[in-house]
Fold this protein.
Amino acid sequence: MKGNMKIKGQLKLYMQWPVILAVLLVIMDICVFQISVKAGAVTTFFLIVYLGIAVFQYRHSRANILNELISFATQYGQVQKSLLKEFIVPYALLDGRGRVLWMNDAFSNLCGKPSRYHKCITGIFQEITLERLPKEESSEVKFHFQERDYRASMRRISIEKMLEDSGLIETEADNHLTALYVFDETDVNRYILERDNEKLVTGLLYLDNYEEALNSVEEVRRSLLVALIERKLNKYFSEVDGLVKKLEKDKFILIMCQRSLEELKEKRFNILEEVKTINIGNDMAVTISIGIGINGENYVQNYEYSRIAIDLALGRGGDQVVIKDNDNMIYFGGKSQQMGKTTRVKARVKAHALKEFMVANDKVVVMGHKISDVDSIGAGIGIYRAAKSLNKRAHIVVNNPTMSVRPIMENFLSNPDYDEHMFINSNEAKDIVDNNTVVVVVDTNKPSYTECEELLSRSKTIVVLDHHRQGAEVISNAVLSYIEPFASSACEMVSEILQYFSDNIKIYNIEADALYAGIMIDTNNFTAKTGVRTFEAAAFLRRCGADVTRVRKMFRDDVDSYRAKAEAVRNVETYRGCYAIGVCPSKGLDSPTVVAAQAANELLDINSVKASFVLTEYNNTIYISARAIDEVNVQIIMERMGGGGHINIAGTQLADKTVTVAIVQLKETIDQMIKEGAI
């Protein structure tokens, strides 16, 4: 045994010093012999004595030294083992299959298992599964155990590396152990939660229809109405430790902590409904909009988030709450239809601004949304006429026109009074648009929905005219944005703009037909989403020469479309007793999305149907057309599925999915929103 033991490292070098010294003495003895033989003999005698003593000591003391070293190492290992066993951090060793090989006292006390427990760790902590064991160097798992929060830190230990120099055990390359440390993070998590709950939240609250509500009540009672509104707001937010202060006559600032915001979320901001109950004889109920910003880098950014959120809430029609959390938007409310304003001051201002932009540039390019419909084309033709009245070069971007818009386009393409390049595709538009071009986007406010999104980055002058409610995705670089969710159609908005655009503007009858058709289609023959200004716009177009008979002839269905629409209605499924879900066949149809929208409109005529959803497949994409009258907000349903629209007219597109999968997703969305109380 002794012969097998070897000394290595620094100790070996230390033990070799007598040999090194003996060599030096031999050299010295030779040098002394060269000088004096007698002196050399004396040094030789003492050299022999030294060598004898050194050899004796090395041979007889080596075993004692090794025994002392082994004893120290053993005691040192026992100390380490004792320290590890009594370590205050729970620690355990696992094998490659997750079985517990060894645990210290703290780990045993934590899990309530004896130190001889050698079963799988998953039997103690269910969250630590074999899949979560570290495949590389380390991994972490957070879990809840016995009403406390823990973090398991696991490190992979290679057995091969530990024993590669021992020469005692041969191991396979894949053998390894896992060192498991468990840290109690209950207190830390509680402090983090308390800190988050106390974070400052800023918001802005606007009264949507302040002037209209005051005008609907007697003058002597107006101050009472204002006082009741402020009292209702102060009482509501003070109950959650919030503060509301007036900035202007119809604008307030909100200050609260994150905990208060969570309480309001649970209540789904029922202040939206409570404020409508204030009535002292006013004919119009008061509605409010709230924009809140959270999780910004500082208070200034939170306030900026709240300003963006309130703009979005107003752009979506008001009567709702929008919370901006960095890039995410959370919506509450928005169930009521926004009241249309009778004043046209805004339309006049926007018309003059649009004219100034057109005068300052040489070219005008108009584009709507993908798969252009009648409203999109009609609005584009209206803007085209405005540009031509200023003698500007103008074009309308249309890619792959569908059957629904071809009758309108053919009226212009066959007319020698109009430029043959009046309608262009995206590639032609890219060659035309530059910084001296006004790009007008109509009937959409989402850049990804436009016919050619690239045009938005090629021009500095972007104008947006739309009647859809805004979502999180907006055209951010627009110099003029005119979005009116209460308008029935983009054609209605363009018709109003044309009335103020120029005193001597002349609208030809086929142009008036196109605008009139857009209003008629989007309002389902003036039965949906119409207001006073809708009929005023229609009257203006009739004076310009629009003919109802010509418009009706343009949009008669062919036999295949009529059969497809009837098939969708015939096979409709009534979900939850009030949601009509149908599938429109697309085979053989030129414009299946248009037919699906028409079928969704017809399903609303069925008694007890609150909302209708018609799905159709087109170009490997599932299109859903959603319609409602007044009981359900289909916009927020479609937004959950990635789309949007109006409160009673909305839709979405689902790429790379089957109709069956889309129906399941639609039903799950409806179920979830009913459970949340969102619809």
